[in-house]
Amino acid sequence: MIKIKSLAILFIALFSILSCSNDNDSTNNPGTITNPVETENPNTSFKPAFNGQTRINGIQTNTDYESKIITTALTKPWSIKSLPDDRLLIAEKDGAFRIVTTAGEVSDPISGIPAVNAANQGGLLGFCLDPDFESNKLLYWVFSEAVSGGNITAVAKGKLSGDSKSIENTTVIYRTTPANSSTLHYGGRILFDKTGNLLVSTGERSVLETRPLAQSTSTSLGKVVRITKNGQAAPGNPTFNQSQSLAELYTIGHRNPQGLAMHPVTDEIWLSEHGPRGGDEINRLEAGKNYGWPVITYGIEYGGEIIGEGIQQKEGMEQPAYYWDPVVSPSGMTFYTGNRVPEWQNNLFIGTLSGMHIVRLAIKENRIIGEERLLAQENQRFRDITQGNDGALYAITDQGRLYKIDRK
What is the pLDDT of residues 50-69, one digit of tens each? Predict the structure, then answer.
């Protein structure tokens, strides 16, 4: 009897250990709990829909880490990814790809990129590597394109040449509609989902005439679209109730989404989105859902006016998992999957522009449980962040810097 009881206790203990190790969210202690990191007054008096939706407790990393500037020779970098050979591929807003080594050696511009309209917020934007990049060398990227009637968000693909000096067989595979003369709010992030199809974030182009189109399913503005490698609507896309709905739509009701990342355990898609004055959002995407803009928002117009009816909740529209007021302007983001800093495992790291820091969000059961601000002392506009093959984080800034962030 004693042996059976001892074995039962041992089984329960082992089960508990395994259960903890397979947690879908933040599997480790996120660090020391502190007061909320946001200390400035909000722009609005709007109330969150649930506790922890904004101004969550701060967290502080206990593991010693450091940041190093790898290079300052970039020009308006917008997106960064690690190549299989450990080099870093970087897209620059004005229309160039460059390869940078982890030692800071910067290549000449890679040729073969179609012309971009780099005015204002446009240019060469986000990109991703084909899941079989090591064998096929295919890239997919988002850019702002001047067309008849104005500008659009477009998606292209091409093959990186063997000498890494050019992009070959470039083809534009997808274009948003309608075109507009605005040079703002292109969105511009792109990634592969677990099915091997592409998710692309598009902005609603900012101006009042196009803003309502974020709610229209007959246009691709203010959306996340899901397409095949050839730019067609991906199989299994949701069906929307409006007439003449586009088959490529995945989610609707976005303002200017500049960050996409897939959770390393659950494969769920998370998105960062610029709000107006207040109301920057982090959303967990679900197919077919409406994320509310411009009907519901936790922000106001830049001049202080209420947007629409001034409401923050409405039936049939999703709440953000987290929001900021005042804004931080969240941009590119990535989940940390390394083990060099245990507190960071499965945490979401987001570059911020007006915030001029990197946000670290700890997540549990799809709720944000802690927020930390990294590299705020650098006074940089952090445009994108990725994890290298060496387990370190690499971040780029509008001012042209490339940072490496890793355990000391």
Answer: 999 999 999 999 999 999 99
> C-alpha distances in angstroms, 258 versus 59, 289, 298?
25, 18, 18
Predicted confidence (pLDDT) at residue 4 exceeds the cutoff of 50:
no
Cα–Cα distances in Å, from 404 out to 102, 387, 392, 396? 8, 9, 7, 9
Burial level of 40, CB count in 10 A (0-12/13-18/19+)?
exposed
Furthest C-alpha separation in the chain? 83
| 185 catalytic residue (yes or no) | yes
- In a 10 Å sphere around its CB, with 0-12 CB exposed, 13-18 middle and 19+ buried, how is residue 212 labelled? middle
User: Which one is predicted more confidently, 19 or 245?
Assistant: 245
Give the integer Cα–Cα distance in Å for 247 and 232: 9
Could you report the per-residue pLDDT of 93-137, keeping only the tens digit for each?
Answer: 999 999 999 999 999 999 999 999 999 999 999 999 999 999 999
Catalytic residue among 185, 254, 274, 357: 185
